[in-house]
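hey so u asked for the seq, here:
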Amino acid sequence: YERIGTPHGDHHDLWINPSNNTIMAIADDGGGQVSYDTGENWTTYHNQPTSQFYRVTTDNHFPFRIYGAQQDNSTVRILHRSPDGSINESHWESTAGGESAHLAPHPENPEIVFGGTYKGYMMMKDHSTGQTRSTNVWPDNPAGSGAEVMKYRFNWNFPIMFSPNDPNKLYAGSNYLHVSTNMGQSWEVISPDLTRNDPETIKSSGGPITQDNTGAEFYANIFAMAESSIEPGVIWTGSDDGLVHVSRDNGKTWDNVTPKGSPLRNMMNCIDIHPTQKGGAYLAATSYKFGDYTPYLYKTTDYGKTWKLITNGIPSNYYTRAIRADKVRPGLLYAGTEWGMFVSWDDGDNWQPLQLNLPITAIRDLHLRDNTLIAATHGRSFWMIDDLGPLQQIDDKIAMAGHHLYDPKPAYRMAQGGGWGSPNTRLVGENHPNGVLFNFFVKDYSDEKKVELKIEELDGTPIRTFSNKSKDRGNRLNVSEDKNRFVWDMRYEGFKEFDGMVLYSSPNRGPKAIPGTYKATLTVEDEEVSQEFEIVKDPRLPNSPEDFKKQFDFLIAVRDKVSEAHQAIIDIRSIRDDINYFSKKLKEKEGYDEILAMAKELDKKMSVIENNIHMTKNQSRQDPLNYGIRINNRLAFLMADQQRGDFPPTNQADEFRKEVSAELDTEINNLDELIRTSLREINLKGREMGVQIISDRFDKVVKP
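ran it, structure tokens below
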């Protein structure tokens, strides 16, 4: 045999093309790679989301970051949303711990992260300095020996966490529960051995020829733990050899509350505290290592005195690793299995799949944060549902309705956009939508139905209306059968446009809505459903409400002046179209020379005004580099320029607005004067001659 080099190790599968054995594919802990030359060269694994995560948690950074450890790779912390158009390599970094780590970012300083790995190794990493520190509970290295030589037995994936009630209290689980209140400087044991402590499970691993004691094979240790946030001092642990314990006095005393009927060595993989019921908890366990693929999910409401098995609806071979209770809706549960996601609306009595667009993959852990649900998959990286509102709000009444608009979650007003070009979607993650998320459904939808989503201020002032019938792409509402999602970018309407408009560096984006409460109404045919929603300030900003209001008022004023300028252009060109139309009809006829000369002179004077307002030579994107921009473009650029960030306008910006607005007012007044005089004279003379030169829509300004 000859060794073949590959980009990664720990190979799982090898496929050789039966028709051409120079083509082969491998799957390993790095991902998948392909060779077309019998293994001489391989494709990269850096183009696929195939990370194998064990656990998932988040920190209190804004935006929050997601943490996890990858099998045979680094630990990761990654933004759940970025200021760019996507989530790319610049938005993640390695953090504390090793490939099998539980991670615990400090609640008050997310730059401090604790992470574990096998053999009981634990470290603290300070991202602000780059320094790391060993914080092992007991710094003895047991390499090459069985777990029986260890003072404290730590699992390959031993749990660590900060207390939800005390930011200075850090827990770690071996076969005992340990606590530190000084950042790992010292540790206190606050429990007896909480495992079966069976000598047969802690012997040296491997054999009979060679031993294999890497630390991955240590058993009889705590594998899951949780502390109640509604009952300080209530702590739960679950061991990998089948025991569940609870303490109601901060670890002074413990009760064995293992569910009756649970398999002898059921690995207690996840414990979640009931969000409102004191004494309540949920448990996910698995015995897959013994060939038992049965799902084991339990719940208790009496501190574990009694447990109920809650797996109805989950296939009998979908073994379970994670269960989490929704923080908003009592009885709404989420479960992760070896073959995907499940949801229950009745506290676990019945389950149904929640796969959506998630690939069929193993779910190792789940985490709820800010009304999102994050899944740590073992093979397809992190996935997130970014708004749980529909799952929390659905009920029989809503389900029976013909259409419904769900209550939107609060939306942060924050800077988020993209750079030049489109990202390679194979190399980036999907960003959190930048705007207000509207989830709605329309049953029995057809294109004949008119569907509108109207957004307005609470006093009824209209902001935007989106419709499936709109011809304007910017106000188009795409609707399909049943579930729909629409993201409003929080912007008011932009300025009025005209055909052939070319502006320099002045995108037509309306002002952003200021933080506050707004109203949305979904109308299907003539039936309405309304919801109020919140736009929330980016908590990193020092801005006052007055700052937002000043910027908004300024931008609205500029927008309206640009619209006024463009309406003048539209009016001028409409009048010109009428003049041109009748000039062609009348130029061959006798007796109309005078009125045609008057119309030509009017057009000439209007052209001067038109070109003062807008550079008419600008016909393509590059033309503004050759010809000086005019009043409308100067104002439009001011509008774009003053939307950089969330700041009130500078003094000079307001001075410039007033100055250029005065220039526009002069041109508008000149146009109005022409309409009142020259245009009126042309129409009066035309009526005397039996013709209507200018459209009736100008009568309101033509009449004396």
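The CA atoms of residues 506 and 641 lie 8 Å apart. DSSP finds seven helices and 38 strands in the chain.
lmk if thats what u needed
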